[in-house]
């Protein structure tokens, strides 16, 4: 039911935006440039084609969701052994990139002759061919930027309706956002550079005819028109600069070093500069607003849910949690139960699915910093979600003392110390993958703090206990000190009496790096799990350091290729799987 509501919300957002855009385009425009005033037919065509593209995209995503054959086809990995921009591409992601390029560059078919003729009528008689070429390129690249700005915020948000409604991996959504952002930056740069080249051309100085043909600040108007009308409509250059500067700031803040070492700088730069870009772009050109509208609706809806809804009614409300020093550099944050006192006295009943992540703010440590954590223990009728946070390491102590995790730990300096802590909680957010629900074999390969999601998955498996299923969890850590937490020791104890449950640690300082390929093949051996004729589906969860998740993903790819080869040959050997899928926390 929830999925149908999400799909309906997407359809309504697109239809409402398309209707509003086509209605507004018929009335007076208050942007500094109004393409519909000069290109009435082409501007309407531009809007219609864009919304048709969005609608067709939803249809393709729905086909991928409901057609296993189409989904398997899109999940084929091209050049599986090669990583480009830190990623291995699937066929679906490759098609998505081409799809974005088509809708971006496609309007050239009607915008090029339109602009060429428009500027030709103004400039051919003056023999000013350079300005004609420059302004034509400026106009076309501006329309590229229209489309890309509209697409830019649709894939990414905490409550991504696209991801939730069509089970699109968060990594794929971020990949789409990056492609669109890079193309948008290129289009904006080309748009601005060609305009600057035109504006700094000194050939018109002293030539009254050329000066009259193109108004300063807005060349779509003549000099006489600009003097007769409001000065508002010659601010186009300045609104363009106002949009370009925050784009540059976001690009700098998105550099890998800044994103990883100063995440909150990256995050707030995106939020603040993003708002400036939206406002400046919509003032700059009316078509920016028409195409940005569906993304804006989804963005506003996302922020509404973040602020007013969720486990603790959103960021607007503080909740008193319990902060504990769990030992072994671990900090535990436990939230209170939402259930009634009577429910809290009864046997705990899970109220949510596993692998839920939240964004947490602790005003006592920092009023602005907000960090994402996967709950190690999901909420039930007797308790709220529980988080395990590990202090940062690998830096000089003076720098570590300034880290958010160390400031948090300083509030409970000794083992078993605890205190109340006011927090603001945003979420929960589920992963867009439910393969674990149908899998007969679940394997978690995690490192460091990546264990929290695996622990929540283990608890879910123990509660749900699908028939004839098996669960294995391998946690790789540097030293044994990290293992001394009850969230880990409790399921380890349960595993000693449950033959279908395997939970073990790998100490990298003693045993070297984890061989993920060997782990996968051993975990899915038929003699190790069940009779070979009772083959099921495998599902792998990987989380932790980049190096670990990359080799885990590569091992999954290799095992799946072996499975396909075995099926084709008719001999599956000792493998207990029919198929294998995985979810990697990137």
TrEMBL record:
Its main location: membrane. GO terms for biological process: monoatomic ion transport. The keyword Electron transport applies. GO terms for molecular function: oxidoreductase activity. The chain crosses the membrane at residues 47-67, 88-113, 133-154, 175-198, 232-253, 265-283. SUPFAM superfamilies: Ferredoxin reductase-like, C-terminal NADP-linked domain. One of its GO terms (cellular component) is plasma membrane. Residues 141-280 form the Ferric oxidoreductase domain. This is Ferric reductase. It comes from Fusarium pseudoanthophilum. The lineage of its organism: Eukaryota, Fungi, Dikarya, Ascomycota, Pezizomycotina.
